[in-house]
Design goal:
alpha/beta; single chain; four-stranded antiparallel sheet
């Protein structure tokens, strides 16, 4: 379970202070897909950065399965980012000179999975997202946008993280493909008991989530 309490983040800019995240508190269960919606600049991506330890909050706490992230030292934070959290981005962020399978295997290498297990695990994850062996050896340029995002999802879930952070994962895709990607996130979350947070500006995509949260000027509220 993810538990966030009174999270704050303020940036100092030339025009004054920007309160990107203000007193944000919420919980999300294992296997749950939660959509976070909001306008550009509302604080969505900042919140994901804090949850992924890509940035640090000014105040508040983030707890995953009873572990307070603020208590992790530098090596603990690195281990968290490589094993306990997976990222899915709008632009896929696949390495172009590696095959789909090699992209997934690289994530497993960073997570220190045993070398002898990486190939089979990568193949299993690509199968889970609907990509067979005929696609596993293709480089990203030889895959469609939807297929590349499937590889990105396989990579994100490969090390069995507890938390998946998806930042506009359907933004580069057509509506139909985007809906399939969100359905796939649901399926993977259920199979691996992971919590999935999906940042999106698309209300129809958000409605596919188990719950919806809205952030405005850094303030988060639940949508009934």
């Amino acid at each position: 379970m993810l538990k966030v309490e009174n999270l704050d983040k303020t940036f100092n800019t030339g025009g004054g202070n920007v309160h990107a995240v203000q007193k944000v508190s919420f919980t999300a269960n294992d296997g749950e897909v939660v959509a976070i919606i909001g306008a550009s600049g509302s604080g969505k991506s900042t919140l994901l950065s804090l949850l992924g330890l890509l940035d640090s909050p000014d105040a508040g706490s983030i707890d995953i399965d009873g572990v307070q992230l603020a208590n992790l030292d530098s090596s603990g934070q690195t281990k968290y980012r490589s094993t306990q959290v997976g990222f899915v981005f709008q632009q896929f962020n696949l390495i172009p000179n590696l095959s789909a399978k090699e992209n997934v295997m690289l994530a497993l290498e960073f997570a220190h999975w045993p070398k002898q297990d990486r190939s089979a695990r990568a193949e299993a994850m690509l199968t889970m997202v609907g990509l067979g062996t005929d696609k596993a050896d293709r480089r990203p340029a030889k895959l469609s946008g939807g297929e590349q995002q499937r590889v990105a999802i396989a990579r994100a879930f490969s090390a069995q993280p507890k938390l998946i952070l998806a930042d506009e994962p359907t933004g580069s895709l057509d509506r139909s493909t985007g809906q399939k990607i969100v359905a796939l996130l649901h399926e993977a979350a259920t199979q691996q008991h992971a919590t999935v947070l999906v940042v999106t500006h698309d209300e129809k995509i958000a409605q596919m989530a188990d719950r919806r949260l809205e952030i405005e000027d850094g303030v988060l509220k639940e949508i009934a």
